[in-house]
Amino acid sequence: MAKAERRGERDETLRAGWQALDAGDVVAARRLGNAVLASRPPVEVAADARDLVERTDVAWPVLGYGVFAAALLLTLVLLAVLR
What we know:
It contains four helices and no strands. It is an all-alpha fold.
């Protein structure tokens, strides 16, 4: 019965992770997904947990474009002020 209880706990943790993602709490969803993966779940549950972790990954290209746009805007403002 212990295996069934642990599987139920993993399923509940994974379900809580998806609910956190739906609610907009990306950090909690990522932590819960990693907690499920750390418990060595069955293949199906591990695939769902990996999907959850991948969906909550940081969008690095978007952040790069944002930094570039901020630097460009700062340059244009400085040029406008100095002229």
